[in-house]
């Protein structure tokens, strides 16, 4: 069924067919550099031979602890070619988190991307008995004389023609049943679990996406979400499968510049990315003179009419609107964006509808690490912004007990590594994966998330609260960077809010508010009043029992190092409740 979709076959076929075309681009020393497909394959093969020289066996594990860069992909595919298994580690993980993964997965070789990751891992190396080698992916990393460490080029030099026959043998005997990765889930409620994904899972998704979206060799994708997350990793696999060009950004602060420099046609992003752009645009419009606001609103209305009905009059009005307003908004993203997959959390419907109106084809979807990413996504012909889209080809979705969304199909994981109890708990008796999300279908087959079963809160008044829905409403505001809703066993809803200090400090300058530091700023009566007004406006459509009645502003963000959020930016609510116990109790005293 998927024999034509083995990922390694697709890479090697593209390298042969598109030898001198650009496969990868990366930014270094103030300019962009290209790697052609022939060179890409050469580097992958060199990595495979080096891994064989270090006796990496079939289904042995290598790990990558790094930000996005071409060497991440080269190490990954180099390992996959010899039927080894790649284990990503989030670049921001702590030493303890990385050590757990290295030991649980029995990792033999670890690749590190920067000095930060190298220094992070050094104190725990002695407690990782399976680990044989640490490879620094950049020559600038100071190895500090560690006997197990070497630089990338020295590691590659260990491989030679002596390993070529073994490489060819591994390629000849590869199987769709081989694991290609272990991805450790974030662990919001406990220890991370290693999700086992095989080539058949990935092949299913390559084929399903071929049937759903249009990506060609001429496309250019900008990659800045972490490869340690299945969303970006699977997307880049798809980009390479299609023979398109993937562009790498290590530092997310470079995204704005990269959009104008390489002008991508495709880019994955999380809802927060769109929410920030939406907030900045709407804020600018609100401050504009009346006639400019009128033109902006007319342009959005003209776009909506054109999409609802393609008449001659609507086409003419749309062309005027596009020239006057819409094209300028698209230029904020480089001007060539054709499609933007969105995942990681549910996108606020108003934000999704806005981007669709200005001509940015956002493909918001639903999926999990356990489903090799996408289960459903928005369609072009039946766009429902409240939904999480229609089910992907080959996926079987039904609604189970407590309205839980259940998934079965070729994309669903094999199970959790070394964890048969959690694997059994994750599936129903008839083999459906339990997602932990409650949902429903409409008459047209669009899927909707109604609640997060595992995170549903119950107030002391007996009302059920879905915190993520409230956090989504408030979190789209330009003054809000992070928010954690408190409601469980409480008489009303409250929230811990981390302000977006860039926006807040600009507001303070405009009002000539004097303050010494951030703590002083968030205690200022004008700032408290600002947030009270913003919350009142943002929550006016929510039932009274769901509205945040009290809030506390925090001077610093929730962080992965403090284990308050996961590397995928999900809140670790138990940690937050404990750490901010005094602030929370003060809101209910």
TrEMBL record:
Gene Ontology CC, one term: membrane
Recorded coiled-coil stretches: 521-548
Keyword vocabulary terms for this entry: ATP-binding, Coiled coil, Nucleotide-binding
Pfam families assigned to the protein according to its UniProt record, in alphabetical order: AMP-binding, AMP-binding_C_3
GO molecular function, one term: ATP binding
Residue ranges of every copy of the AMP-dependent synthetase/ligase domain listed in the record: 12-417
CDD domains, per the entry: VL_LC_FACS_like
Name of this chain's protein: Long-chain acyl-CoA synthetase
């Amino acid at each position: 069924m998927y024999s034509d979709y083995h990922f390694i076959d697709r890479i090697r076929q593209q390298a042969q067919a598109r030898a001198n075309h650009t496969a990868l681009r990366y930014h270094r020393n103030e300019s962009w550099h290209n790697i052609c497909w022939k060179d890409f394959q050469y580097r992958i093969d060199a990595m495979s031979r080096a891994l064989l020289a270090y006796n990496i066996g079939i289904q042995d594990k290598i790990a990558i602890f790094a930000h996005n860069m071409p060497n991440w992909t080269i190490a990954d595919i180099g390992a996959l070619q010899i039927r080894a298994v790649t284990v990503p580690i989030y670049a921001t993980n702590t030493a303890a988190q990385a050590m757990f993964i290295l030991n649980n997965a029995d990792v033999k070789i670890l690749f590190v991307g920067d000095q930060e990751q190298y220094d992070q891992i050094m104190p725990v190396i002695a407690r990782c008995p399976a680990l044989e080698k640490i490879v620094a992916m950049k020559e600038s990393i100071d190895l500090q004389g560690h006997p197990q460490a070497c630089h990338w080029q020295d590691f590659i030099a260990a491989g030679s023609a002596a390993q070529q026959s073994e490489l060819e043998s591994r390629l000849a005997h590869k199987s769709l049943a081989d694991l290609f990765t272990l991805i450790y889930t974030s662990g919001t409620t406990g220890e991370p679990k290693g999700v086992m994904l095989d080539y058949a899972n990935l092949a299913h998704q390559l084929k399903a996406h071929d049937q759903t979206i249009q990506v060609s060799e001429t496309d250019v994708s900008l990659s800045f979400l972490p490869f340690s997350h299945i969303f970006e990793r699977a997307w880049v696999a798809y980009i390479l499968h299609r023979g398109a060009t993937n562009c790498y950004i290590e530092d997310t602060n470079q995204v704005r510049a990269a959009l104008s420099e390489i002008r991508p046609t495709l880019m994955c992003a999380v809802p927060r990315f769109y929410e920030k752009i939406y907030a900045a645009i709407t804020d600018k419009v609100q401050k504009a003179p009346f006639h400019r606001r009128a033109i902006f609103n007319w342009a959005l209305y003209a776009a909506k009419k054109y999409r609802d009905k393609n008449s001659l009059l609507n086409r003419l009005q749309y062309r005027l609107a596009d020239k006057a307003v819409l094209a300028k908004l698209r230029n904020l993203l480089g001007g060539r964006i054709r499609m933007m997959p969105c995942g990681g959390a549910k996108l606020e419907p108003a934000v999704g509808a806005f981007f669709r109106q200005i001509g940015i084809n956002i493909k918001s979807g639903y999926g999990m690490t356990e489903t090799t990413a996408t289960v459903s996504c928005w369609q072009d012909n039946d766009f429902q912004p409240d939904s999480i889209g229609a089910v992907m080809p080959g996926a079987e979705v039904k609604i189970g007990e407590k309205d839980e969304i259940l998934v079965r199909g070729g994309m669903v994981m094999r199970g959790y590594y070394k964890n048969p109890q959690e694997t059994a708990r994750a599936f129903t008796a008839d083999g459906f994966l339990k997602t932990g999300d409650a949902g429903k279908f409409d008459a047209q087959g669009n899927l909707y998330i109604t609640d997060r079963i595992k995170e549903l809160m119950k107030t002391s008044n007996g009302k059920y609260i879905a915190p993520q829905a409230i956090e989504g409403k408030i979190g789209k505001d330009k003054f809000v960077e992070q928010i954690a809703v408190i409601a469980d066993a409480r008489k009303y809803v409250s929230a811990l809010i981390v302000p977006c200090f860039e926006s807040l400090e600009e507001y303070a300058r405009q009002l000539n508010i004097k303050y010494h530091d951030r703590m002083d700023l968030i205690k200022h009566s004008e700032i408290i009043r600002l947030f009270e007004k913003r919350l009142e406006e943002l929550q006016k459509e929510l039932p009274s029992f769901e509205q945040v009645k009290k809030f506390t502003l925090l001077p610093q963000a929730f962080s992965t190092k403090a284990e308050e959020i996961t590397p995928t930016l999900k809140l670790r609510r138990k940690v937050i409740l404990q750490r901010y116990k005094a602030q929370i109790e003060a809101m209910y005293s």
